[in-house]
Amino acid sequence: MNAEAAALIRALGLAPHPEGGWYRETWRAEATFETGRGLRAAGTSIYYLLADGAVSRLHTLASDEVWHHHRGDPVSVHLFGIDGYREARLGDATESQPAWQAVAPTGTAFGAEVAVPGGWALLGCTVAPGFSFVDFAWADLEALRRLHPARAEVIARLG
Hints:
Layout: H1 3-12, E1 15-16, E2 22-28, E3 32-34, E4 39-41, E5 44-51, E6 55-61, E7 64-72, E8 75-81, E9 84-90, E10 101-104, E11 109-114, E12 120-128, E13 136-138, H2 141-147, H3 152-158
Antiparallel strand pairs: 1-2, 2-5, 3-4, 5-12, 6-11, 6-13, 7-10, 7-12, 8-9, 8-11
């Protein structure tokens, strides 16, 4: 593993994430409200690190998620929404296309990968209403393949 990525995992106290990579929750709002799916924090945030070919596997949330690029190589966030497919490239916003953040809207199937082979990236993910595993579901890969046959390779990598 890249030495800087390994040092960040130790320094930030990151643990393996069920969808891939490393994470630690850094904020959970004290304010809560009823969502219709139960009581949720107004928002949550995590550090999230991808390295050594780890990917964020395709999943959906019942909340919006904002991805923030903090450090490292560019990241491709692959979004499969009701409007079709799009790739959000996170990285140095002074480059031609990358941005510092991207949004995965509620109900969008999405996943991410470092855009540089062997690269790494430290990200942040903010969810509102706040994250709960009750609101998390793995993406239906077969349905994605049927709806987006041109993206079969991406679906296979992140599935």
